[in-house]
Amino acid sequence: MAGEGSNADWMGSLPPALSALPLSNLAIPGSHDSFSYWVDEKSPVGPDQATTIKRLAKISLVKKLMKKWSVTQNLTFKEQLESGIRYFDLRVSSKPGEAGQEIYFIHGLFGIRVWDGLMEINTFLTYHPTEVIFLDFNHFYAMDNAHHVYLVSRIQEVFGLRLCTKECVENVTLNYLWEKKQQVLIFYHHPLYEEYPFLWPGNKMPAPWANTTNVHKLLQFLETTLGERAKHGTFHVSQAILTPRVKTIARNLIRGLKNTLVHRNLPLILNWVKSQKPGIMGVNIITSDFVELVDFAASVIALNDLLLEEGKS
């Protein structure tokens, strides 16, 4: 395996034949619940949780156990970016009862302030001017219009001219973005996207979710949804993730998500990834949990070589 952080500039290192292709035709690694590498056990349980869980979580032990199920990534944004991750699946929330409009990442428990995460990402982009990232804000909790306006103004404040304005998906190639010095595509699953030129609608980033603990069902689902992928006009996310049921969580509380679901099934998931091909009806963005456990990002990035072979033949 290559040295640490060796995928920090992978987009900039692609051959010219690939930097001329639409980003929707390239294979791009992403992370699921991307911010959840740090969750605060002391914070209240998030409004994304069912009432039963909220009641249980009043017990501090339950919160510690929830942490085992809430953390789906062990790497910080910077570490994920250095390993090659370029798509981030983001869920955000206000803290009910807190004064002001502050917004936090959330997955069961509250994580860091969105502002801090965006700053961390922006610093990476400053040092890696050829790299382009997708930020997919797809779940909002306890947020009114003022919260949304606050969040969008933070996004604008952090990234400024790096934000890529809405455009025909097929026009968005690395060459196009490099020329404009744009590095960030924001997908915003809320009607507010209409009011800002740099907010792409959520329907340009479909991410069908299998919602299963069964790895064979997951792989079948990924195949089916790829086959139904729109030929033009959207990106596409293959969510190579297994979702714990409440029953599974109860049975395996102490062992946590990583130990029960993920470790056992990663080899099969990775084999599926390695058998894919990017292109018009092929894979585009592939997301996974615990992206550091196997060489996930490198395996996805390597798929782009198949496009070169295709070009030669």
What does this structure look like?
This protein has one domain (16-312): Alpha-Beta Barrel (TIM Barrel), CATH 3.20.20. The chain is 37% helix and 15% strand. It contains 12 helices and 9 strands. It has helices at residues 16-19, 51-56, 60-70, 77-83, 114-127, 145-159, 174-180, 215-227, 246-251, 256-274, 296-302, 305-312, and strands at residues 28-31, 87-94, 103-107, 109-113, 133-141, 184-188, 199-201, 237-239, 285-288. The relative contact order is 0.17.
Keywords:
12 helices; nine-stranded mixed sheet; 313 residues; alpha/beta; TIM Barrel; disordered N terminus
What's the helix and strand layout?
Elements (H helix, E strand, L loop, with lengths): L15 H4 L8 E4 L19 H6 L3 H11 L6 H7 L3 E8 L8 E5 L1 E5 H14 L5 E9 L3 H15 L14 H7 L3 E5 L10 E3 L13 H13 L9 E3 L6 H6 L4 H19 L10 E4 L7 H7 L2 H8 L1
Parallel strand pairs: 1-2, 1-9, 2-5, 5-6, 6-7, 8-9
Antiparallel strand pairs: 2-3, 3-4
Helix pairs in contact: 4-5, 5-6
